Amino acid sequence: MFIKGDIADMETVKKATNNVDVIFHLAAYANVAATIYNPDEDFRSNVIGTYNVLEASLEAGVKRYVFDSPAAVYGNQQLQNSSEPVKFHEDMKPNPLSPYANSKLWGENQA
User: Fold this and answer.
1) Residue 35 near residue 75, CB atoms below 8 Å
2) Nearest 5°: phi and psi at 93?
3) Cα(6)–Cα(27) distance, rounded to whole angstroms?
4) Which residues on adjacent β-strands are paired with residue 67?
């Protein structure tokens, strides 16, 4: 089933979560630079939208909820070795440096 809609619209989200067992929440306002200049849209899509998907999933009795979150929530981290890139892992302390990263971290915490 395909439903075209806006996750900031609770009625659309409720329709999409009805009679499903698993939710893969991949929707986001993901243009990092744009979130700096348009934080209202970031908040509407990434915070209100994620809240709607979480609430509707709970109400519908969804058995599994998978939330996609980027490495951006970790921000800049110290290099472990100057010749190797940083290897991100879930035990790192978050350090969001943009509205996008902050809103995705909020989603992680709520989930």
Assistant:
1) no
2) -75, 130
3) 9
4) 25
Tell me the mean pLDDT in the region 57-72.
95
For residue 42 the two structure tokens come to: 């970031």
d(CA 78, CA 16): 41
Q: How far apart, in whole angstroms, are the C-alpha atoms of residue 53 and residue 9?
A: 10
23 forms beta bridges with 65
Beta bridge partners of 65: 23
| Beta-bridge partner residues of 24 | 66
> Distance from CA of residue 61 to its chain's centroid?
20
CB contact at 8 A, 60 and 18: yes
* pLDDT band at 82; cut points 50, 70, 90: low
**pTM of the entire structure?**
0.87
Instruction: Give the span between the Cα atoms of 35 and 103, in whole angstroms.
Output: 10
Averaged over 24-39, what is the pLDDT? 93
Give the phi and the psi of residue 90 in degrees, each rounded to 5.
-70, -15
